[in-house]
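Our preliminary data section would be incomplete without showing what the modeling component actually yields. Below, a chain of 241 amino acids is followed by its predicted structure, encoded as tokens that our downstream tools consume directly.
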Amino acid sequence: MACWPGDGHAPEVWEKSPGDPVSAVDLAVDDFLRHELGLLLPSAGWLSEETVDDPERLEGGLIWLVDPIDGTRDFIAGRPGWAVSVALISAGRPLIGMLEAPARGESWWSEVGQGSWRNGTRLAASARAELPGARVPAKLLPSVDTDLVAVHQPNSIALRMAMVAADEADLVATLRWGFEWDVGAAALIAREAGATVTDAFGQPLHYNKRDPRAFGVLVTAPAIHGAAVDRLAGRARELAG
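Predicted structure:
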């Protein structure tokens, strides 16, 4: 069953660059959120996947960090593994994180120091104590990781991170350069639920940087984070160059 909003017709789609799809809905959601969030907090800057970056965002320290549709491939295909991701960042750290996944009937919310919630239910992250057997959202695991257990993988990295917050996964890792808007909201949701969140090297994530990228994200049950960093360290160094 297709999971598009509105009249159910497939959205207009093109590629921003080879292998990087975008739809007309991505842009419409971006425009809507920029207008509405701008009215809510006019002093905040703006950093979004679908808006040309304005260096003035670096001046104030308070920004909205937005991915209007995280998981565009699932959205385009009519699958439910996509979400709207919004975070409010102050002095390089998330204050509020929100994920709206309407095709899944899910609303995720987190506020620093106040915990994380999905559809009104407070979340408690995975408490797994050993890396072998850890649940990982993946379609296929590398041969070196066959001691892990693959579970359903939505296209949205934000939703995969949120799975750790909801104790539906124990470990999520990416080993590539990614952008702040991909992970800002979900990082706070996972952390406030009790998960450990870092880049692929185990270092803290920071936001509203001049270059809004980081190499990888690693979200785990706290007890297995060190083992996950150790396992991925060689691969991360090689891929990051």
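Helices lie at 24-40, 57-60, 72-77, 157-165, 180-192, 225-240. Residues 116 and 122 are 6 Å apart (CA to CA). Preliminary results of this kind motivate Aim 1 of the renewal.
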